[in-house]
Amino acid sequence: MNDVEPSSTGLPSDLPAHAARLLHAVRQEQPLIQCLTNSVVTNYTANVLLAVGASPAMTDIGGEAGPFARIASGLLVNLGTPTPEQRLAMREAVAARRSVGGRWVLDPVAVGALPVRTALAADLLDVGPTVIRGNASEIRALAGQAGGGRGVDSTDSAADAVPAAIDLAARTGGAVAVSGAVDEVVGAPARVGGDTGGAVERYRNHHDAALLTKVTGGGCALGAVIAAFLAVGPDDSPAICAALATGYYTLAARQATEVSTGPGSFAVALLDRLAAISPDEFAADTGLSVVPATATDDDANASAATAATAVDTAATAVAASAATVETAVDTAATTESAAVRTGATR
Amino acid sequence: MNDVEPSSTGLPSDLPAHAARLLHAVRQEQPLIQCLTNSVVTNYTANVLLAVGASPAMTDIGGEAGPFARIASGLLVNLGTPTPEQRLAMREAVAARRSVGGRWVLDPVAVGALPVRTALAADLLDVGPTVIRGNASEIRALAGQAGGGRGVDSTDSAADAVPAAIDLAARTGGAVAVSGAVDEVVGAPARVGGDTGGAVERYRNHHDAALLTKVTGGGCALGAVIAAFLAVGPDDSPAICAALATGYYTLAARQATEVSTGPGSFAVALLDRLAAISPDEFAADTGLSVVPATATDDDANASAATAATAVDTAATAVAASAATVETAVDTAATTESAAVRTGATR
Amino acid sequence: MNDVEPSSTGLPSDLPAHAARLLHAVRQEQPLIQCLTNSVVTNYTANVLLAVGASPAMTDIGGEAGPFARIASGLLVNLGTPTPEQRLAMREAVAARRSVGGRWVLDPVAVGALPVRTALAADLLDVGPTVIRGNASEIRALAGQAGGGRGVDSTDSAADAVPAAIDLAARTGGAVAVSGAVDEVVGAPARVGGDTGGAVERYRNHHDAALLTKVTGGGCALGAVIAAFLAVGPDDSPAICAALATGYYTLAARQATEVSTGPGSFAVALLDRLAAISPDEFAADTGLSVVPATATDDDANASAATAATAVDTAATAVAASAATVETAVDTAATTESAAVRTGATR
Question: For binding substrate, which residues are annotated in this chain's numbering (chains A, B, C) (predicted)?
């Protein structure tokens, strides 16, 4: 599937050519991607980056994470298992990265349901991640839309989180990628006068890659691939880099599904396919469509004005006191705690 | 092999039906299993849980481990690489879990031979794990039966550790699963008057899964599967949940052995088979037999009275001083240090 | 390829027999190898050791690493992700290991480009690792040859680092293994009078194992295999143990390449092949040649006198101040930072 529709918002009209160009550039430039990621998925994430053609470096200790973030080609910060040492290193890396104007990716694993990472995520959000990648529950929680007693909901589709994603993109000026059965990627609304109510760059990915949810790190590794595409497309928007990374990764996953007999052989085949797909093969099947601005965006724009406040509120509510924390967690449990359930490992 | 014998102690007489029901429930309910486990096996353990049909969450930092343990469906604490941060999180998680009456699994990796974890294990044992899973050396060491200058012995069969296992079960009121060429699972002795000298619920697993010893985390991941079975069988005894988890896991391992060409492909095939085995297929080949009370139990009952004291002694002896520590470790080395050798990674 | 040339320096003339004997011994003795290694590769390293026939133990916390290092059969210290806790444990382990005269392996991942590990590496070097294993950039940086504004260079071949390797071997009295398209292994120069200007034991490995660079931990795991070969060949020189471990590991890698369809299936096949190769099969294809002393050695001897000073200088230069650190790192970036790029994960 490759429904490249004419864009009404000045978006790229030739996604296949973009796709081939960026994948080729990853293979040629072998961008050095620094990952501060959770302990469950470090190995798989590094192997995914190697398979893609990039060079991983898991430099995540204090005193090294900052200097390294200045020179790396890309940076991923994933909150899956944020030990005190890693939290220190993450703050150091993000500050150093910002000081040199470098792009970086935030994966807010299980934010909203667990207190330590929720407070950390609010701080990191203030630094302005170039791309935020998460599932629908995490994106909504990060945008402060998980309140009202409902907690996070595992049955959210990615589309349900698009308004929250646009809120976040408006705040950071970057892009937000929401993973789901169909993936959604949005950029920051264009500024109209002093406002952010303009058109939104938006993509949808249609590759069927359901087995990714059966491999730990299946989602986390995508964050690293997005960082690699950002590194080699400095003149491309964060949204199109994130969309193309998603299309490529899920194309490999779909192909891997066809040759595997379960989640173990799928994870192995995914690495093989990531290394094997040529730029031309990717261009012929990006999986992406460009989504024109719709009524959904109007909803989003309406709520964008409250985004900054909402995020701060989310962090405050969770971090305020132990009692509040437990309430927040219990609330999440009541609604099946999907962000928690899947977030901590995928 | 599926020798379901009539039980003389009120044990379930229809293991196949139990087997099918619990495996079906894991797949349906997708229990959320929190794992505080060693850094070597986090990835494989998470992938095993996903393959089984459960949802892993490796939430193991202070400030999050406790709140999470209140809402998780299951909890595994594995002592393989207990950093200070993890030790803090383990104490927090276990206390929180107990406060809500939740079940949990303890895997006392290399206890007895290494000082930090031995002291920690003694404390955790006091909180009453629902199931303890280990190899024969670890179970004997945890029960305080490794003293007398012999240290731990790598040639222990699981059967040799059954008296120690019954001692521990009597103390915790839960079950103990001993891994070996033939696996042994025992429950707590029934109380007769104020004593614990009653009949013991006991199972034996006969599936040949020797290649599990060639994959790091092969044993550790079983602890997580036991936690998943405990989660979906709240009205089933800890012993039968642990036995069925063992039977299912080793059935998948036996099938994986048949299609693999070495330890690498075996580890991959194990994940595929764990996901593929149907409840009916498991029911037709549980691998389990019910073991009637025998003379072995008499030995165990005789020694049960000294169990609590022995465990405290083990921790004290190892933790008392550096000099003692080195003596204990040297002793283990003299007798080939099997718990150390295999325990730290499997 | 198996070009065993007559040695002019008293080196073993029958490499095939040595090869068969040491591999057989690993399988028989199952040496217990303690690994303090980076968080990215713990799992793969443990599985490589199990496949080889050794027993892994990732005992890397303070209070346990030291006592364990006294009793383990071998010890690997890998600086890939040196958290404060691991740095403490590494110092503890190496001191304990030295106190009992035990052999150990140092893998100085990304040394020279990152400040914390560079300072640590200088300290550990003083303790005298039996074997140092790294890529050309790391070996040159550790020997203090990366200064002068050039930083490390990704295009170094292993041969380019032989003078630096000989410098280091002269300082430690052990061996240095340099990984590359063709691997180089050197021993310490023989002492002539009070000087170290004598002949150098030297091997070259010719197996083509390029896919190892596409699997994270592909190089790191070789350090563990070297530790296993050192453990079972106490009367063999460090250099021949390191060379044979390299020949065996890369033979398995070459065979794995032939049966795999990408980096994912290669990593799996490597484990299968490591377990399958028989001592006789290895003897028939060690991949090794003995390198006679050449002019290269003269260069090395000339620079050996300055080695100790150079290493201290490297550590000082990087650790001196934040400003210096950033300069050093920026310099590395300018020259493509290959040690950083590949070192942190391989």
Answer: 58, 217
DSSP A73-109: SEEEEE-SS--HHHHHHHHHHHHHHHHTT---EEE-T
Mean pLDDT of C23-48: 98
For residue A8, the model assigns a pLDDT of 40
Residue with tokens 């040199």: A100
Q: The domain C15-329 belongs to what CATH superfamily?
A: Ribokinase (3.40.1190.20)
Q: Please identify which residue in the block is written with the tokens 């400030």.
A: B63
Mention every residue, 6+ apart, whose C-beta is less than 8 A from residue A45. A35, A37, A56, A58, A76, A217, A220, A221, A224
The residues of chain A scoring below 50 in pLDDT are 1-11, 147-154, 295-346
Write out residues 92-131 of C within 8 Å (CB-CB) of B.
none
Cβ atoms of B107 and B76 within 8 Å: the answer is yes
Give dist(CA B315, CA A248) in Å, integer.
54
pLDDT of residue C195: 67
- Among residues C237, C219, C207, C151, the alpha carbon closest in space to that of C179 is found at C219
Measured distance CA(A165)–CA(A187) in Å, rounded? 9
d(Cα A260, Cα C86) in Å, to the nearest integer?
Answer: 38
How large is the average pLDDT for residues C262-274? 98
Residues 50..89 of B with a Cβ closer than 8 Å to A: which?
A: 50-51, 55-64, 67-68, 70-71, 85
- Residues B337, B112: Cα–Cα separation, whole Å: 10
Q: How many residues make up chain B in this entry?
A: 346
Domain A15-343: give its CATH superfamily.
Answer: Ribokinase (3.40.1190.20)
Interatomic CA distance for residues A11 and A292, integer angstroms = 9
For chain A, domain boundaries: 15-343
DSSP 8-state symbol, C213: G
Nearest by CB: C81 against A50, A60, A276: A60
d(CA A242, CA A107): 13
Helix axes C220-232 and C42-52, enclosed angle (nearest 10):
40
Band (C113; pLDDT cuts 50, 70, 90): confident
pLDDT digits (tens, 9 = 90+) for B116-126: 999 999 999 99
Alpha carbon separation from C164 to A197, B214, C181, C297 (Å, rounded): 61, 38, 18, 10
Q: Say if domain B15-337 classifies as CATH 3.40.1190.20.
A: yes
Among the listed residues C45, C173, C25, the one whose alpha carbon sits nearest the alpha carbon of residue C107: C45
Q: Note whether A197 and A189 are within 8 A (CB).
A: yes
Phi-psi region of C337 (alpha: psi -120 to 50; beta: other; left: phi over 0): left
CA B83 to chain centre: 21
Q: Identify whether the C-beta of residue B39 lies closer than 8 Å to the C-beta of residue B81.
A: yes
Helix/strand/coil for A3:
coil
Contact by Cβ (8 Å): C247, C212: no
Interface predicted TM-score of the whole assembly (ipTM), two decimals = 0.86
**B22, B244 contact by CB (below 8 A):** yes
Task: Determine contact, residues A94/A127, Cβ cutoff 8 Å.
Answer: yes
Q: How far is Cα B201 from Cα B242, in angstroms, rounded to an integer?
A: 12
Are B257 and B275 in contact by the 8 Å Cβ rule? The answer is no
Nearest to A114 by CA among A155, A143, A80: A80
Residues A135/A180, Cβ–Cβ less than 8 Å: yes
Closest chain B residue to C71, measured at CA: B333
Q: What H or E segment, with its residue span, contains residue C131?
A: strand C131-135
Interface test with C, best of A258, A271, A278 (most C CBs within 10 A): A271
pLDDT band at C152 (very low <50, low <70, confident <90, very high): very low
